[in-house]
User: Fold this.
Amino acid sequence: MPADSANIARHLPLMAARQPHRPALKIPRGRTRAGDIDYLTLTFAELDAETDAWCARLAARGVRPGDRTLVMVRQGLPLIASAFALFKLGAVPVVIDPGMGLRNFLSCVGRAVPRVVVGIPFAQLVSRIFRTPFRTVEVRAMVSASLTARLSGEPDVAHGPAGNVSGPRIPASTIAPSRATDLAAILFTSGSTGPPKGVCYEHGMFEAQVRLIRETYGIEPGEIDLPLLPVFALFDPALGMTAVVPEFDPSRPAAADPGRIVRAIRQEGVTNAFGSPTLWQKIADHCGARGLTLPSLRRVLCAGAPVPASLWVAARRLLPGGRLHSPYGATEALPVSTVTAAEIDPTAVKGALVGRPLRENRVRIIGITETPIFTLAEARELPAGEIGEIIVTGPTVTKEYDGLPEATARSKMPDTGNRRPDSSENPSAGLSGIRYPPSAIPIWHRMGDAGYLDPEGRLWFCGRVAERVETTVGVMFTEPCEQVFRGHPGVARCALIGLGPASRREPALVVQPAARRADARKLAAELRALARQHEHTRNIRHFYFHPRFPVDVRHNAKIHRLRLARWAVTATAVEAPNDK
Assistant:
């Protein structure tokens, strides 16, 4: 492999050489007689050998550099081994959340035009039943339900007691010599405010993510990570951390047993963990009810939605030796900024503080518009304190969506000064195969989020642009409004929605009650009293009650407000009595 290769897979053999005998991956496989979790453990040397075995077998099946490869495997070893093997081969993993629903999933597959499917038997069956979206598939590599890299039609890889691998192995020197601008993977958005979109990641972007995450959070080789979002386990080999596979179904995070997660953290001395606010609130509640703390944790990274005030407060007791951090970003640009519990005012109702932009990022706020902006110079930059759309540029900012030139044009702005980009520079030309050298033209990404910068240069999140409510007396944003009501003990979740025609909608609040048999009229009266205490919520007079909010599958935290607004059209609102 050339010394200047940017292939993200090179980190694994480097870590295997630096710390060969340190555990790289721990996979739960049952319980010991003492009741502890029993783990199958692979060292960094063994994990590197395992990925080399995958490389040999995938190459033998006909996987080639540049092949788009749909990855449909289980979390843990199959996901890490398959992804790093594909990186080593120079192929392009395509990772789609299976929980997004069959219709969205098949649509994503069709747009990704994969040549290869690497998956468990059920995934292979799906690929044969639904032939149209899988019509471009030429190679199918079957992965058994076991933890090894067995592929159909070939002998099993032999494992020793600790996971030693014998059999075909590709030397590390054969890792594809990828450039920083070469396509590395296609990852899909959660689709919380629209159809999921494939995001094109280059090897240089992954490299920048590893660098920024390591520097920002002070992560050191030898730490132990519990990734509660499976895709984040892919960072662990590059960071030199042991990845402990959690005992839960990642397609159903709401059903996770917090007791199992807490047991793993305390038993394995976990130092780092990533997860959604919803999941960490469950963990904090579980520990609070039992008087437990998690002293081994140095940091918890909590993202996917704004962290509620209750969790910021609970974290101070839960993490006696660590901190809760909330990195802000999106699939298209991650991380953008970060904030810790020490910086949070739990009583704030002016948006969610998401911290200062990371060292290599630049953030601005521009006037909200629904139309494409062809160059940064055409955007209207807003002063500090004024809410607009958040835009960002930096080394982790992606340049285009896969196969969606119109979406790319709506979300990307090249910084070409006062000159409009020509056809060789316009992001909407992404299908032509044109790519942007990082040093040539900075690309700004429109986050689709509303927010503002305060006079100190800190970034505040105010909600999704698409979910703002335009009324006759002004624009209302979800986060500052919902913060007013979240602290009420009768509210499990709440969502600001707008009813009626655009630009003159009637604001309303949809509430998921904390109690199954809540007194709706009494709760509505109390929420109306809260609304009247703040100028930006004074116009909310109508309250709807919904037993179970629709949320994203990936984090179980992002509320589908537009879906709730459609539901409310035929539902009956509760108006607060005696409102003056």
Observations:
- The chain is about 25% helix and 25% strand.
- Residues 8-244 form a domain with the Rossmann fold fold (CATH 3.40.50.12780).
